Amino acid sequence: MSTPSVLGTWRRLSGSWPGRLLVSAAVWLRAPYFLTAAPVIRRLEPGRAEVSLRNWWLVHNHLGTVHAIASCNLAEYAMGVMAEATTPSTHRWIPRGMSVQYLAKADTDLLAVATFAQAPAFSDEAEDVDAEVVITDGRGQEVVHATITLRISPRPARVPATA
């Protein structure tokens, strides 16, 4: 039995705020680390995800702005749902590294837009591809830029269970 795809579930439920929240929360439950940041998917399609983060006290640093690591969580969440929406069931992905630039204080709600720098080939060989994540504040100013390198590889063949 296979689990439903993020993209398929998104396409069924994204027409309303509760539906978008439900899909976002399903990802939180699959990766509970994201629960405190509580990012919400705004738009999702193969090769692109838009995800928001509310500026609330649980993501604040000692300055009362969005903590740098909360921004990293937002970037990774946006990249993850974008990778899930893009990667065919014949392949899998895993992050291999992340480079982050903190460009300005984040004192509003945030919007992360994740895209692939170059479309993955999804060939028979493993490949490393970069996802670019631009995080902007409520004024449209870029406050964080992340490049996340993913390893995309074919899924190993499943060995049937023997009786």
TrEMBL record:
It comes from Actinomycetospora lemnae. Signal peptide: none annotated. It comes from the Bacteria. SUPFAM superfamilies: Thioesterase/thiol ester dehydrase-isomerase. This is Hotdog fold domain-containing protein.
